[in-house]
Design a protein that fits this description.
Layout lengths: L1 H9 L15 E5 L9 H5 L8 E8 H6 L3 H11 L5 E3 L4 E3 L10 H12 L7 E6 L1 H13 L5 E6 L2 H7 L7 E3 L2 E5 L7 E5 H6 L2 H18 L1 H15 L3 H21 L16 H10 L6 H18 L5 H13 L22 H10 L22 H14 L9
Parallel strand pairs: 1-9, 2-3, 2-4, 2-5, 5-6, 6-9
Antiparallel strand pairs: 7-8
The structure holds nicotinamide-adenine-dinucleotide (NAD) and zinc ion.
């Protein structure tokens, strides 16, 4: 037996294999994608020779409530494009919008069953029209069916158009953890339609602005200054101002995903998750009373003040940014921050451990190094964070409280 084992070891060889895949997708910016003469979707859904291109369509209930004629207009658009052999495999379906969409694994079988019944193949598309949550949930299902159907996304909220809808990730929540299940799977095409931006309610309008402040804080000082200047216009629902912010924010996210060299986050750094260790936790602690963007606004405020504590930025630099968030209508303090665990430790800090696990055991947190530049940290100082939180708590009185 011993001899056999030696022989086996001697015979062992190791060889590395690898490949790289060039992946491309188009981001269209348009107004009114389902106007009969709008061809963004036909550019995304080209029919193979002699066959039809078929799609299943899922629409966020919130988008339908804001634009009740949407399902009818989608039917009309496909009827107009019949000659190009673009077809609905089934009538568009409505998915309950918001985080509830990601809390129910039933979405996998719902989309899966439809794909099975209507015999979708890997050249078929799943068109998802919705906020980040519906895009994440339906996208997760689409990624699993036949190991990945083509995903065409029409993000309908500010946050989805400037962040969630652009990425190469999807996710479902499980065991009280955000995005516990999910895959990396790039989109086939993205269509950012201004009409959806105009139709959203104030809460959805505002939420994505927090992601813009997030990415600007660590990547683009000029954009951050512009956000501070634009805050009153954004608060007054100026569509041109919002569209400009969405366009720049989308560009920064897409640049990062496509050029930073780690689209599938194999390394331990997630710079786009600045402010998110606490945000993800606050979403859960508030039982999703706080939406993602609302939690990110608080998370960014905490991390900016933390950055002041560790000497990365000055209080004077940070204050106009916090004031701009408040002007846009964000509350920068939430009672979920007061919650404590059985040992008396602030419950939000479990977000640090969850973040560490998600990254594979080693903590790397993005921090500004001067506004608009980034330098990660590998250790987290809870006492410094306590001081930052105490400041944030005091600032409550400074900013107008706008109930969202
Ligand atoms: N995959 C990623 O890379 C990524 C990145 C960032 C965030 N996310 C996820 O995105 C989600 C947040 O997305 P969100 O901010 O878009 O919120 P959301 O998807 O929760 O939607 C918020 C609300 O707006 C409604 N809604 C959607 N479109 C509307 C419209 N046009 N008019 C009126 N109401 C509309 C929805 O029904 C919902 O009630 C979170 O689950 C977050 O984890 C994912
Ligand atoms: Zn986010």
């Amino acid at each position: 037996v011993r001899g056999g084992a030696r022989l086996h070891n001697q015979a062992m060889t190791s060889r590395d294999y690898g490949f790289s895949v060039d992946y491309r997708f188009t981001v269209h910016a348009t107004s009114d994608a389902f106007a009969p003469d709008n061809d963004c979707l036909s550019a995304a859904m080209v029919a193979p020779p002699g066959r039809a291109a078929r799609a299943l369509v899922y629409i966020d209930s919130g988008a339908v409530a804001a634009m009740p004629d949407l399902p009818r207009r989608i039917h009309t658009w496909f009827a107009t494009h019949e000659a190009q052999r673009l077809r609905l495999a089934a009538a568009p379906e409505i998915v309950d919008g918001g985080e509830i969409a990601k809390n129910d694994l039933g979405i996998l079988d719902r989309v899966g069953r439809a794909a099975f019944d209507h015999r979708l193949c890997r050249h078929s598309s799943v068109i998802t029209i919705g906020g980040g949550a519906v895009l994440d949930a339906v996208g997760c299902a689409a990624a699993l069916i036949h190991r990945g159907l083509r995903q065409i996304r029409l993000p309908t909220t500010t946050l989805a158009q400037c962040d969630a809808g652009l990425g190469v990730k999807n996710g479902l929540n499980r065991f009280g953890a955000k995005n516990f299940y999910g895959t990396f799977s790039p989109p086939w095409a993205i269509i950012n339609d201004r009409r959806f931006l105009a139709a959203q309610d104030d809460r959805a309008w505002r939420a994505g602005i927090a992601e813009a402040v997030k990415v600007a804080s660590i990547k683009d000082a000029e954009f951050l200054a512009e956000l501070v200047t634009l805050a009153p216009l954004l608060a007054a629902r100026d569509l041109d101002a919002l569209a400009a912010v969405v366009a720049r924010c989308a560009e920064l996210h897409l640049d990062h995903i496509t050029t930073a060299g780690d689209p599938f986050e194999q390394g331990s750094s997630r710079p786009l998750d600045f402010g998110h260790w606490s945000a993800h936790r606050l979403e859960i602690l508030s039982r999703h009373r706080l939406g993602h963007g609302e939690a990110v606004a608080i998370g960014v405020a905490i991390d900016l003040l933390y950055a002041v504590q560790i000497g990365r930025v000055t209080r004077a630099e940070v204050e106009p940014v916090l004031a701009a968030l408040a002007t846009c209508g964000f509350r920068l303090w939430d009672e979920a921050l007061e919650l404590r665990d059985a040992e008396g430790r602030r419950a939000v800090y479990a977000g640090i451990e969850q973040f560490r696990e998600h990254l594979g055991g080693e903590l790397t947190l993005a921090m500004p190094d001067g506004l608009g530049r980034r330098k990660d940290i590998g250790t987290f100082d809870e006492e410094a964070c306590e001081r930052a939180l105490a400041q944030l708590r005091r600032l409550r009185a400074t900013y107008p409280v706008i109930v969202s």
